[in-house]
Specification:
mainly alpha; globular
Protein backbone atom coordinates (compact mmCIF):
# COMPACT_ATOMS: atom_id res chain seq x y z
CA UNK A 1 0.00 0.00 0.00
CA UNK A 2 1.25 3.48 -0.79
CA UNK A 3 2.16 5.83 2.05
CA UNK A 4 -0.56 8.24 0.86
CA UNK A 5 -3.16 5.48 1.30
CA UNK A 6 -1.91 4.76 4.82
CA UNK A 7 -2.11 8.46 5.65
CA UNK A 8 -5.67 8.66 4.33
CA UNK A 9 -6.61 5.65 6.46
CA UNK A 10 -4.96 7.16 9.54
CA UNK A 11 -6.92 10.38 9.07
CA UNK A 12 -10.14 8.42 8.66
CA UNK A 13 -9.46 6.57 11.92
CA UNK A 14 -8.62 9.82 13.70
CA UNK A 15 -11.98 11.23 12.55
CA UNK A 16 -13.85 8.13 13.75
CA UNK A 17 -12.11 8.22 17.14
CA UNK A 18 -12.90 11.92 17.58
CA UNK A 19 -16.53 11.38 16.52
CA UNK A 20 -16.79 8.44 18.92
CA UNK A 21 -15.48 10.54 21.79
CA UNK A 22 -18.01 13.28 20.97
CA UNK A 23 -20.90 10.78 20.73
CA UNK A 24 -19.89 9.06 23.96
CA UNK A 25 -17.17 6.46 24.44
CA UNK A 26 -19.47 3.97 26.15
CA UNK A 27 -21.69 3.91 23.07
CA UNK A 28 -18.76 3.68 20.64
CA UNK A 29 -16.28 1.33 22.30
CA UNK A 30 -16.04 -0.92 19.21
CA UNK A 31 -15.17 2.00 16.94
CA UNK A 32 -12.54 3.17 19.40
CA UNK A 33 -10.99 -0.28 19.82
CA UNK A 34 -10.83 -1.02 16.12
CA UNK A 35 -9.66 2.40 14.95
CA UNK A 36 -7.06 2.89 17.70
CA UNK A 37 -5.57 -0.48 16.76
CA UNK A 38 -5.60 -0.05 12.99
CA UNK A 39 -4.39 3.57 13.04
CA UNK A 40 -1.50 2.90 15.41
CA UNK A 41 -0.31 -0.06 13.32
CA UNK A 42 -0.60 2.03 10.14
CA UNK A 43 1.43 4.78 11.81
CA UNK A 44 4.14 2.23 12.55
CA UNK A 45 4.02 0.95 8.99
CA UNK A 46 4.38 4.47 7.56
CA UNK A 47 7.24 5.18 9.95
CA UNK A 48 9.09 2.01 8.95
CA UNK A 49 8.46 2.61 5.23
CA UNK A 50 9.67 6.23 5.42
CA UNK A 51 12.83 5.10 7.18
CA UNK A 52 13.41 2.26 4.66
CA UNK A 53 13.26 -0.34 7.42
CA UNK A 54 10.74 -2.56 5.60
CA UNK A 55 10.14 -3.26 1.93
CA UNK A 56 7.51 -1.12 0.15
CA UNK A 57 5.21 -4.13 -0.21
CA UNK A 58 5.48 -5.23 3.42
CA UNK A 59 2.35 -5.25 5.55
CA UNK A 60 2.24 -5.12 9.33
CA UNK A 61 -0.72 -6.78 11.01
CA UNK A 62 -2.30 -5.77 14.30
CA UNK A 63 -2.20 -9.30 15.69
CA UNK A 64 1.61 -9.22 15.62
CA UNK A 65 1.25 -7.22 18.83
CA UNK A 66 -0.63 -9.88 20.77
CA UNK A 67 2.57 -10.40 22.76
CA UNK A 68 6.08 -9.02 23.08
CA UNK A 69 7.53 -12.31 21.85
CA UNK A 70 5.45 -12.26 18.68
CA UNK A 71 6.16 -8.57 18.03
CA UNK A 72 9.91 -9.16 18.32
CA UNK A 73 9.65 -12.25 16.15
CA UNK A 74 7.84 -10.33 13.39
CA UNK A 75 10.00 -7.18 13.72
CA UNK A 76 13.46 -8.56 14.61
CA UNK A 77 15.31 -5.39 13.58
CA UNK A 78 15.93 -2.31 15.67
CA UNK A 79 14.37 1.13 15.12
CA UNK A 80 14.01 4.33 17.15
CA UNK A 81 11.80 3.93 20.22
CA UNK A 82 11.09 0.29 19.34
CA UNK A 83 10.56 -0.84 22.93
CA UNK A 84 8.21 2.01 23.77
CA UNK A 85 6.25 1.68 20.50
CA UNK A 86 5.94 -2.07 20.91
CA UNK A 87 4.77 -1.76 24.52
CA UNK A 88 2.02 0.70 23.56
CA UNK A 89 0.90 -1.37 20.56
CA UNK A 90 0.68 -4.46 22.77
CA UNK A 91 -1.42 -2.55 25.28
CA UNK A 92 -3.82 -1.39 22.55
CA UNK A 93 -3.98 -4.85 20.95
CA UNK A 94 -4.68 -6.57 24.27
CA UNK A 95 -7.74 -4.37 24.75
CA UNK A 96 -8.84 -4.36 21.09
CA UNK A 97 -10.71 -7.67 21.19
CA UNK A 98 -12.28 -6.78 24.52
CA UNK A 99 -13.66 -3.53 23.09
CA UNK A 100 -14.57 -4.89 19.66
CA UNK A 101 -16.07 -8.25 20.60
CA UNK A 102 -16.64 -8.24 24.34
CA UNK A 103 -19.41 -6.97 26.54
CA UNK A 104 -19.68 -3.25 27.29
CA UNK A 105 -16.58 -2.13 29.17
CA UNK A 106 -16.02 0.29 31.99
CA UNK A 107 -15.18 3.88 31.08
CA UNK A 108 -11.66 3.41 32.47
CA UNK A 109 -10.87 0.59 30.02
CA UNK A 110 -11.98 2.63 27.01
CA UNK A 111 -10.18 5.71 28.28
CA UNK A 112 -6.99 3.69 28.72
CA UNK A 113 -7.08 2.72 25.03
CA UNK A 114 -7.63 6.35 24.04
CA UNK A 115 -4.75 7.36 26.30
CA UNK A 116 -2.44 4.71 24.81
CA UNK A 117 -3.45 5.78 21.33
CA UNK A 118 -2.69 9.42 22.13
CA UNK A 119 0.71 8.38 23.50
CA UNK A 120 1.67 6.50 20.37
CA UNK A 121 0.33 9.27 18.15
CA UNK A 122 2.45 11.82 20.03
CA UNK A 123 5.46 9.53 19.91
CA UNK A 124 5.23 9.17 16.13
CA UNK A 125 4.73 12.92 15.79
CA UNK A 126 7.91 13.47 17.83
CA UNK A 127 9.68 11.12 15.41
CA UNK A 128 8.63 13.35 12.49
CA UNK A 129 5.52 11.58 11.24
CA UNK A 130 2.72 13.76 9.85
CA UNK A 131 -0.64 12.61 8.55
CA UNK A 132 -2.65 15.78 7.97
Amino acid sequence: MKIEDHLRNINESLDVINESIQKGILERQRNIGFNASVASVEMLEVFLHKNNLINPGSIIKHDWFASERKANEKLPFDFPEKEKITRILIDIENKRSLLCYGKPQETETIESVISSFNKIKSLFESLGLKWN
